[in-house]
Amino acid sequence: FYFVNVTNQGFVINDELSSTNGVFEPSDSDFRDFYKKGIASLAEKNDIVHSAPSGHKFKHPSGRILNLFIQAKEIACNEAELQFIARGLCLIHPQISWSELESVYIDSMGIYSLVKEALTFSNSQAVIENFHSYEGIDKLIPPTELDVAIISASTSGSMASILIDKGFDLSRIITLIDTDSKEKSSLSLVTLGSDNDILKKDNSLYNYE
Fold this sequence. Notes:
Blueprint: E1 4-7, E2 10-13, H1 28-45, E3 49-51, E4 58-59, E5 65-66, E6 68-70, H2 79-91, E7 103-106, H3 112-121, E8 127-130, H4 133-136, E9 147-154, H5 158-165, E10 173-178, E11 187-191, H6 197-200
Parallel strand pairs: 7-8, 7-9, 9-10, 10-11
Antiparallel strand pairs: 1-2, 3-6, 4-5
């Protein structure tokens, strides 16, 4: 078994507390995958996926009509969970150096505390800018190489596509909660695809027009 320290420099095995058999030593990729499963379990525990009442559907800001609505702000219900997820946000995609960021653009104030915690953990002085979802996305100025955009949740990938048109590289866009993998438009923290228990509970949630 392994004891792993989660630091702003990455995942570090604590050799003094760990007991290894010399056969298997987990890699950074293993730690990231394991950590993502922990975040996904919090998403399930905290019921971030809401289903529409019978006879009703949700119309999303993207224009998509679905039986489900994702409340990304509900993924953490206490300080410990907030810190756990924020650390994952910093570490799961190591190609983004959070300590060097200048600006973080978010689509909703609902995820402000999560992003703020991630910046604190990484000792970053970056400024958080809320562009107010689709209402304000057209007003965004072209980003610098030290900027990143955080999308709270997505079912279509359309917001990420708009951000790419605005000049963001897909490797600088993170979708916190995605319904499926959209590697061509953004990175993701949690993917609620067909293999995830959250959507397996009620497959009708994923029906849309």
